[in-house]
Design goal:
The chain has 289 residues and is α/β, with parallel strands linked by helices. The chain is built from 11 helices and 14 strands. Strand 4 and strand 5 form a beta hairpin. Bound molecules: adenosine-5'-triphosphate (ATP). Belongs to the ABC transporter superfamily.
Length: 289
């Protein structure tokens, strides 16, 4: 399956939320990374058909999704950043309700719910009221409801925001089980989520595609731009003003800084291995003068 986003633009007044955005996606998990206001939500809402682009088209296997109509929308599953639940429903009642909304055949509902609640480790909580769920349980129920119609395109908007590390890892593991014959778009600010599970990363800024590639490709491209330096307090403060800083570690002598910079930031700086945080800083961090 191929989802192709062709030269999408969306304006609010004179400001572009998306500008000539083009990307092609196949089965697998894609991380959508960008700073605040980059256009991630606008892109997601355009793919979901919640908002209409001013220019460009979205095609599924070569067919304009607007012409595919409900057939396309039945293939899409969505977990919003803040999913809303009817708090008085039990977990199972909520899932039954979602199955009905998504036209899951009656004869399949029970099995589908058992299968999905098992996938998200909520089988022991089926009779519990959703209003009494923890944040992590709510997000796991959120992914289960997004999967009721077995979507071929699954969009997750900031799914791990607010979760503790244990729940975040649990959630990540659930998502990584979903990649078969499905396009998963995971929009997030949490770089490590993407680093662990995405086959490719889509980097967006000011409504445009900045870069798309595997973790290996993206980190290799900035391999000569990531530095480490051990320095005293005064120099460290100066460097922190001037450069994008990936990491600061206090040492007995002062500080050890990881710096992302086109040029060597100071004498004594040496190259170190780049990670996705560094890629993020390279494209979206401080502009060097
Ligand atoms: N309904 C709207 N009316 C006016 N401007 C909007 C509207 N929605 C988005 N924008 C603007 O479009 C740009 C992209 O916004 P968008 O919400 O898509 O970014 P984002 O990457 O999702 O940001 P965040 O990470 O903060 O959620 C921003 O400049 C935003 O202010």
């Amino acid at each position: 399956m191929e989802l192709r986003i062709n030269n999408i633009s969306k304006r609010y007044g004179k400001q572009y939320a998306l500008k000539d955005f083009t990307v092609s996606l196949n089965d697998g998990i894609y991380g959508l990374l960008g700073p605040n206001g980059a256009g991630k939500t606008t892109l997601i809402n355009t793919i979901l058909g919640i908002i209409k682009q001013d220019e460009g088209s979205i095609e599924l296997d070569g067919k304009d999704v607007r012409k595919l109509g409900s057939h396309y929308y039945n293939l899409v599953g969505y977990l919003p950043q803040y999913p809303q639940f009817y708090k008085n429903f039990t977990c199972r009642e909520f899932m039954e309700y979602m199955c009905t909304l998504k036209d899951v055949p009656k004869s399949q509902i029970s099995n589908r719910i058992n299968e999905l609640l098992d996938l998200v480790n909520l089988s022991d909580s089926t009779a519990k009221r959703v209003g009494a769920f923890s944040g992590g349980m709510r997000q796991r129920l959120g992914i289960a409801q997004a999967l009721v119609n077995d979507p071929k395109i699954l969009i997750l908007d900031e799914p791990t925001a607010g979760l503790d590390p244990k729940e975040r890892i649990r959630f990540r593991n659930i998502i990584s089980k979903l990649l078969k014959e499905r396009i998963v778009i995971l929009s997030t600010h949490i770089v490590s989520d993407v680093e662990y599970i995405a086959k490719e990363v889509i980097m967006i800024d000011r409504g445009s595609l900045v870069k798309k590639g595997t973790l290996k490709e993206l980190t290799e491209q900035i391999a000569d731009k990531v530095w480490e330096i051990h320095t005293d307090d005064t120099t460290a403060n100066l460097l922190m003003e001037l450069y994008s800083i990936g990491n600061v570690l206090a040492t007995e002598q002062g500080y050890c800084l990881k710096i992302v910079s086109e040029k060597c930031p100071a004498s004594g700086a040496v190259h170190v291995v780049a990670n996705l945080d560094d890629v993020f800083l390279h494209y979206f961090g401080k502009e060097e003068t």
